[in-house]
Amino acid sequence: MLPFCVLPLRAWSRGLGYSLRYSSTSDLPVIHLPRRAQQFLERREKKHAGEVQAPRAGRLLISSRRRELNQYSRETCGQWEKPPLVSQGWKHRKSRGDYFTINRQREQRPWPETEETFHSLSLDPSLVSSLDVLNITSPTWIQKQAIPALLQGKNVLCASETGSGKTLAYLVPIIHRLITHECDSSSDPRSLILVPSRELGGQVTSVARRLCAQLGLSVRFVGGGHGRKAIANQFRDEPLDVLVATPGALLKALKWGKVSLSDLHYVVVDEADTLFDDTFCELIEGILSHTQIASRPSDLQRLDRKAQLAVIGATFPRGVAKILKKVTDLGSIETIKSKRLHFLMPHVQQVFKKIKGLDKIHELVETLKKQVAEKPGTGVLVFCNSSSTVNWLGYLLDDHGIKHVRLHGRMPADMRSGIFETFQKGQHDVLVCTDIASRGLDSLRVDTVVNYDFPPTLEDYLHRAGRVGRVGSECKGVVVSFVTHAWDVELVQKIETAARKRSSLPGLESSIKDPVKSSDIIKEEQQTL
What we know:
Mean pLDDT is 83; it is low at 6-23 and 510-529. Helix 3 (141-151) runs parallel beside helix 4 (166-180), helix 4 (166-180) packs across helix 5 (198-212) and helix 7 packs across helix 9. By secondary structure, the chain is an alpha/beta fold. A hairpin with a 6-residue loop joins strand 3 and strand 4 (71-72). The termini are far apart. It has helices at 35-47, 125-133, 141-151, 166-180, 198-212, 228-233, 247-255, 272-275, 280-288, 321-324, 360-374, 387-399, 413-416, 419-424, 458-465, 486-501, 508-513, 519-527, and strands at residues 4-8, 30-34, 60-64, 71-72, 99-102, 155-159, 189-194, 219-222, 240-245, 266-269, 308-313, 333-337, 349-354, 379-383, 405-407, 430-433, 446-451, 478-483. The longest helix is centred in the C-terminal third of the chain and has 16 residues, at 486-501. It is built from 18 helices and 18 strands.
């Protein structure tokens, strides 16, 4: 038996990895290969004879370097079945360089379609005109559900995905009530909106002022980081319709007797999953003790009028019962919850890269340079887990000639003021920040979120990822996460499992009962007290 045989070139396309020469004695191109390779081919063809390769179903849901771990959107996985994971072995050092992508399954955010306009919600015509001027004509799903409930005088607990339009969901009914009810000339605020950070407070204030510009209503923001005199100057002897405040600054003003909450019509707790944290909740409880919250709509019409309550969050804050039961009847609170709460966003591409810590700088620089080259004018948010990392990373980006701005809670108030606004206006395209920029801030121009440090909790991941693909954004959005530590891998495995099963992220419902500490935001607020 000859040690070699001659086969047509098509055998080469069946998986042989031999770089062999062509035969010069045949009209057809041929290659020479060992007899054992020919026998292997014969056995494989005999084994798979008659088999038909079925096409894969749907779009590619998860793609990876290892094709056998790819999954298509219509492939199913049982509820109790443990799917194969790309990240299964990522705790081993040899996994460095591996990656997988959760691909975009929709081109736009999957909100239920609504044909209604704000004209159909029984709002004051002047308020609807203000919305039209801002080119806001149709309510989102959460606005369509929350606005009528608040207009009916109900206390509402509203939980919906980031970027779904929750700010207007509570601002519109507040403004409607303020312009349709008579008021006295008191300088005490008629409505109060509590927010966890100065950046979010500035944003809510800006939206409220644009809506109230033609309605004769006053809007004021009071934030921490300033001394007693600066805070006291915010409470002048003038009518105040909408007060937006951080908890620390407002509690100071209450203790100093600079403001009274006895004339409130509305109380809003925005980003409730943060404000009802174990540390923040003490401040919130102190503020709510100065208010009178209605237990039924009829309480809003009495002479000793009480305030209506709205609790807003991107995660469902069951833990609020601990505080709210002290100020109102829990049975009076109507819950409005999105069906897609705690789900990964199907319209945003999410990339996970397993790399060692020393390679993160190189990966980040390459990502930012690619963004500038391919998508000029769009924004990038780079998230870190601590203020010191933000500063250190900023110095390295300076060395690479990448223009950026930084935002974290340890900055002095004067330095921190206006940073996010300059990013929103496009004066800078890269913002390196802590989780203080992940809660509620509007980021329509952001195309890419980079988790330089992987977030410590699944809630933080959802909030960071929610900075892209927001309602009204023209950017499709991508989230790139660097995975380095073993505890990062555990969270990534939960995210990948939820994506493969197309289910909500695990553990969020139970963790809300005992809210996870958002340590960076809490420390920042404490430093302003």
